[in-house]
Structure formats: C-alpha cells, structure tokens
C-alpha cells in the first residue's frame, strides 16, 4: 500500500528499531491494539507496522480513519509516541509548510477543493516549536541539504547545522578569494607580502602601525618583536596602535615599553554589546584595549580614545575585525596620505579601512593563503 503524504511528514524508524519490531511480530504476532489506519486508500498511520508485518509474515489489522482532521491525527499520534526534540520537529514543520490541509467538516464532498496551504508559522505552531527554528531548518535545507538527515536523526541541532553550513560557505568564499588573490597584482596604493616580522626589513618608514596581533599566551613573545621592529619601521613620532586582549596586559606593556614609549590606552567597544566569555578570569568583557605606543615623542593630531564597530566580521579570518571598526581606528589616528603598516594583516581588513580613508597600505603575514585572501579583497577596493 502507498503511504499518505501526511504520514510521510515523519521519518521512518531506525534500522535497529525496525529490526526489533519485526522480531516482536514474529514472536508474538500482530498487536490487535495497534491497527494500521487507512485514509483515501493510503496508510495514514502505521507505515512501520505495515512494513514489519510484511517482513514477519503476519497479517496486520487495517481500520479506516473515522475523524475529520487527518493531519492533526497524524501529528498528535506521532508526537505522543516519539521523543522528538525541537530541531527534529522543525524538519517536520518545514515539510508541512506550504502543504495543503484542512478539516473535513461533515464529510463534505468539496473538502479536497477547499484545502488551504499551511503557512510556515502555522506549521511551527502545530509542532509546538518556534518559527525561528523552522526558518533555520529551511535555510539548511536550501544551503546544505545533506545535513537534514543529521537533524532528523537527532545527531545535530538546527543551530549546529546552520553553523556548519555557514562555516562551509565561509570556507568556500575564502578559497575563492584566495584563488583570485593568487593571480592578482599588487597596487601602487597597497602591497601585501608573505613575510616573517622577525626578519622583514622594508625600504621605507611608516607613519603608523595599526594591527591586531594574536591574543593567546603562546604568542606573548611576538609583542616584544613587534615593538623592537616598530622602532625601526616607524618614522620618528610614529605610532603603534595595537588591539589586545586583557588577560596578559602587564606582560604586554612590559614587553612594548622596552623599545617604544607608552602613550595611551584606548577602548574598542565590542560590536553590538556582544561579549566573549573569558572563563579562566570569570569575566564577560565588552571592549578591547587599543594600546598606543610611540617611536619617540608623539606630535600628531589629537585623537578620541573610544572606537566603535558596527558589527563583527569573521568571514575571512577567525580573528577578523570589521572594516567599520578598523576604519574608525584609522580615522582617529591617521591623515590622508599616511603610510599604514599591518604586520599581522590576516585577511586585509586594516588595508581596506586604510584605503577607504585615503591612506597607503602595506601588510605582511606569514600565511600565504591569508596573503592571497588579503590581495583578493584589496583588489576589489575602488
């Protein structure tokens, strides 16, 4: 017999569960208290029992559906029998959305013509879940349909599947940008080089270094390398403006002060009030320090000490900052025509911000793929 479309909203049993059902029928026969319900000549409820009865060689009990709302009958019976989480129910709601359904009042002959499409919010309500979860599942269905079985089986939540899908999209976008950057030429306005900050020696001096070094403890030695090299790379009075985490600030200040003059500490507000959780310190920080050190005595323009960003941007680098945030930093410290250096350029965000503010840019990174991504992104700047 065929299965009704309402029955097919719900997944079949797992192979292990089905094997147990077949074994039970072979041993005890068909359970009289679990009839298979037939509607419109199709199985409305009992697909697994029907299939198991065939395999076990027993005769199932078939009864016609007697109610006036077959869809609600299927939903109610399946939700009562199964322990489905919200994400699993969202997959079902996603299938139900846009399906035609309705109640058969008084067994009307015109009922089939009067059925209406179930909207996505209605489907969410029928399955007792939030419309947002259904929307997540539908997004995964469009962008990564191979993950739907993982949600349906309970191995992955809708949120986890959406994160996986977005991670794939970011990886693909990075690869595409890196491929474009691998063949794109540098510009007279910007230049990105694969190099090591410990050994790189430029043929000119820079007005300012704007950078975002890595924060974990194992990278602390890089701060002294940065300060030592900055004293050679910068013009007299030039600044290092470096974003930092808070966990190791005393060590960072001690390292930087060996070679440069401490000038100020600004605040970079975390976008949208978002907070990273620093579990070892039991702190939810809502800002990052911007450490300002000078090569000698600062003689540049006045600057405000609070910078803001309109949002996060991790599309091209796991530690990436937004263009809007880095542009705010550039505006506060730079004049048009300044030569800006970022020795940890990552995906080139500082360069995009510098160019947008009328500056020249040089970036270095020791990862060739990140260099290619930077060149690919900067090549698109107008």
Descriptive overview:
By secondary structure, this protein is an alpha/beta fold. The chain has two domains: 7-163, no CATH class; 184-379, Rossmann fold. Helix content is 40%, strand content 17%. It is built from 14 helices and 13 strands. The strands form three sheets. The protein has an eight-stranded mixed beta sheet with strand order 6-13-12-7-8-10-9-11. A three-stranded mixed beta sheet has the order 2-1-3. The protein has a two-stranded antiparallel ribbon with strand order 4-5. Helix 1 crosses helix 2, helix 4 packs across helix 6 (120-126) and helix 7 (131-143) crosses helix 9. The model has no long low-confidence stretch (mean pLDDT 90).
Task: List the main descriptive attributes of the protein structure presented here.
382 residues, 3-stranded mixed beta sheet, 8-stranded mixed beta sheet, Rossmann fold, 13 strands, 2 domains, alpha/beta, 40% helix
């Amino acid at each position: 017999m065929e299965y009704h479309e309402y029955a097919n909203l719900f997944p079949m049993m797992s192979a292990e569960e089905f094997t147990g059902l077949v074994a039970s029928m072979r041993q005890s026969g068909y359970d009289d208290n679990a009839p298979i319900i037939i509607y419109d000549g199709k199985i409305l409820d009992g697909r697994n029992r029907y299939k198991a009865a065939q395999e076990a060689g027993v005769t199932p009990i078939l009864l016609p559906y007697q109610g006036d709302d077959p869809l609600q009958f299927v939903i109610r019976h399946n939700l009562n029998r199964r322990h489905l989480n919200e994400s699993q129910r969202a997959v079902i709601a996603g299938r139900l959305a846009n399906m035609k359904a309705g109640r058969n009042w008084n067994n009307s002959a015109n009922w089939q013509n009067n059925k209406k499409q179930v909207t996505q919010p209605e489907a969410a309500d029928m399955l007792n879940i939030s419309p947002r979860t259904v929307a997540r599942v539908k997004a995964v269905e469009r962008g990564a349909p191979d993950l739907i079985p993982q949600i349906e089986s309970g191995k992955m939540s809708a949120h986890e599947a959406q994160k996986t899908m977005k991670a794939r999209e970011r990886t693909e976008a990075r690869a595409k940008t890196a491929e474009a950057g691998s063949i794109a030429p540098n510009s007279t306005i910007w230049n990105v080089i694969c190099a090591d900050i410990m050994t790189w020696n430029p043929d000119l001096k820079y007005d300012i270094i704007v950078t975002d070094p890595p924060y974990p403890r194992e990278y602390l030695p890089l701060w002294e390398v940065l300060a030592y090299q900055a004293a050679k790379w910068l013009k007299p009075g030039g600044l290092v403006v470096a974003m930092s985490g808070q966990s190791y600030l005393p060590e960072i200040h001690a390292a930087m002060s060996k070679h440069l003059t401490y000038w100020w500490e600004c605040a970079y507000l975390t976008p949208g009030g978002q907070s990273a959780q620093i579990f070892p310190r039991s702190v939810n920080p809502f800002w990052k320090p911007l450490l300002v050190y000078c090569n000698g005595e600062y003689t540049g323009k006045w600057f405000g000490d609070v910078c803001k960003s309109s949002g996060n941007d991790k599309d091209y680098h796991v530690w990436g900052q937004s263009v809007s945030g880095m542009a705010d930093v550039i505006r506060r410290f730079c004049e048009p025509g300044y030569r800006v250096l970022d020795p940890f350029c990552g995906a080139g965000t500082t360069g995009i911000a510098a160019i947008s503010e009328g500056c020249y840019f040089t970036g270095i990174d020791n990862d060739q793929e990140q260099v290619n991504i930077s060149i690919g992104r900067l090549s698109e700047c107008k």
